[in-house]
Design the sequence.
């Protein structure tokens, strides 16, 4: 059964939907919108089923790469079409595929112009994201990593709000600048290692320390922008505010995880000694991101901007847990990424619900929505509490483990991260009170209808995931544990060996 090239199938199946839209959807907007949406939805649902099958045949007890596909691409330079997944990347493939049908459904009411082209961009973007998470060759990974920029740039620039051009170019220039440094780093790494095969480079990350530090900084520039870490985060609020709802969902749910995934693969696996050297630098940036962006979120009057800044704060817990460098912290970082995918995506979908009805993101324009939209109020409350990190929700597990890992590294890091939890509760609960309680001064807000059937279909699986990950995180942690244990052991072993060698060299000198 596993002889099927399932990774290629799940990567390129969305392009079949693109081909079908090109072939069979022609004519004026009124006639093409429905068929384009239907083809995209069916394609994404089938691809989600394929990803679930991939998850089913994946062996969590095996910490190595599985379902590997390798074909020589450019023999002269040793470049290959090489794909595979382990206990880290398989989760990102799954969330990329499962979010896609939700994005299509959210665009049913939000995208009314050039629907055909939007669906094509969405399907191409899905291929690029999944391709990046499954690539095991440096060149192949870079092609997919860069390929994400084009459809996302178009989604913001064409279907975004009034400031879409500025937001699209800021997104493109920030991420492209980091990508140039990534390309240079990959070239140096390939020349030094004599191969572009990531699996070979990971087994023997024997790179001179002086070179490793420069490579680390080059890779960090690319992935810190994507995560995004403070102070490289300024493109994100603009991109979120101007992007259509589906674009914001993909940005929060998947694109930010490309940064976290890159930090794990390139910083900690390929350059463990340099990662340890720079770890306190990253921990400082992480706690600044958690506290500073939480304070900025408190001052926001725009719904999307508030949630965008909360995303930066939550991704701070990811980098905090990762660079704590221990098993608990790394597990926490992975869990935060999974939880953030669900919760942040859901919150942007919640914004889309009221924006489609009232066409404003100004928090002051709402109020007392619990009266006329009680079911929406319940759904929003679930995701608000998950964002706050209430026990029993997905948000609690990841943040708790991440902070525990930080405490194990140093009590100061854990204490500072704890401030972010308090501030997070402040801005999210304040937002909820302002939107759903108090007095409403606007009749149009009070006239808005409650959730539709389509919106129920979007939110029910997300609510279930939030509660399932919060109440029964054991199975998920068990599936991650073998790979993450191997990941941390290799990192700590290499770091401790190099540290001992450095001390010995220092003593001789």
Sequence:
């Amino acid at each position: 059964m596993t002889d099927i090239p399932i990774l290629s199938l799940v990567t390129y199946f969305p392009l079949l939907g693109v081909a079908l839209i090109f072939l069979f959807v022609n004519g004026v907007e009124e006639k093409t919108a429905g068929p384009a949406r239907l083809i995209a939805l069916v394609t994404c649902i089938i691809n989600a089923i394929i990803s679930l099958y991939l998850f089913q045949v994946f062996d969590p007890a095996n910490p190595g790469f599985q379902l590997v596909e390798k074909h020589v691409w450019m023999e002269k330079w040793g470049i290959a079409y090489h794909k595979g997944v382990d206990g880290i990347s398989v989760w990102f493939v799954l969330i990329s595929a499962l979010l896609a049908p939700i994005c299509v459904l959210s665009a049913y009411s939000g995208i009314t112009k050039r629907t055909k082209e939007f669906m094509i961009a969405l399907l191409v973007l899905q291929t690029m994201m999944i391709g990046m998470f499954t690539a095991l060759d440096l060149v192949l990974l870079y092609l997919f990593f860069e390929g994400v920029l084009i459809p996302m740039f178009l989604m913001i620039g064409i279907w975004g709000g009034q400031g879409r051009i500025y937001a699209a170019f800021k997104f493109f220039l920030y991420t492209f600048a980091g990508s140039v440094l990534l390309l240079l780093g990959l070239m140096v790494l390939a020349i030094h290692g004599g191969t572009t095969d990531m699996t070979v480079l990971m087994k023997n990350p024997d790179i001179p320390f002086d070179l490793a530090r420069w490579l680390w900084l080059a890779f960090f520039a690319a992935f810190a922008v994507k995560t995004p870490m403070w102070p490289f985060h300024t493109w994100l609020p603009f991109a979120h505010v101007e992007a259509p709802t589906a674009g914001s969902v993909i940005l929060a749910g998947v694109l930010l995880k490309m940064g976290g995934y890159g930090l794990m693969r390139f910083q900690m696996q390929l350059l463990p000694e340099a990662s340890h050297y720079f770890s306190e630098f990253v921990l400082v940036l992480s706690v600044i991101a958690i506290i500073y962006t939480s304070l900025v979120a408190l001052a926001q009057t725009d719904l999307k901007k508030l949630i965008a800044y909360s995303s930066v704060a939550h991704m701070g817990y990811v980098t905090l847990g990762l660079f704590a460098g221990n098993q608990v912290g790394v597990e926490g970082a992975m869990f935060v990424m999974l939880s953030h995918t669900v919760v942040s995506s859901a919150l942007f979908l919640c914004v889309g619900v009221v924006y489609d009805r009232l066409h404003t993101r100004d928090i002051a324009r709402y109020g007392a929505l619990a009266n006329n939209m009680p079911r929406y109020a319940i759904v929003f409350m679930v995701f608000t509490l998950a964002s706050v990190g209430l026990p029993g929700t997905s948000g609690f597990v990841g943040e708790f483990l991440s902070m525990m890992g930080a405490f194990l590294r140093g009590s100061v890091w854990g204490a500072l991260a704890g401030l972010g939890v308090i501030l997070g509760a402040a801005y999210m609960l304040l937002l909820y009170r302002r939107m759903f309680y108090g007095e409403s001064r606007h009749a149009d807000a009070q006239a808005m209808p409650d959730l539709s059937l389509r919106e129920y279909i979007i939110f029910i699986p997300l609510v279930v995931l939030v509660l399932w990950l919060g109440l029964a995180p054991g199975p998920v942690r068990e599936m991650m544990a073998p790979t993450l244990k191997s990941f941390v052991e290799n990192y700590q072993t290499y770091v401790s060996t190099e540290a001992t060698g450095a001390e010995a060299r220092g003593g001789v000198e």
In short: The first strand starts at residue 66 and ends at 74. The chain is about 80% helix and 5% strand. The longest helix spans residues 474-508.
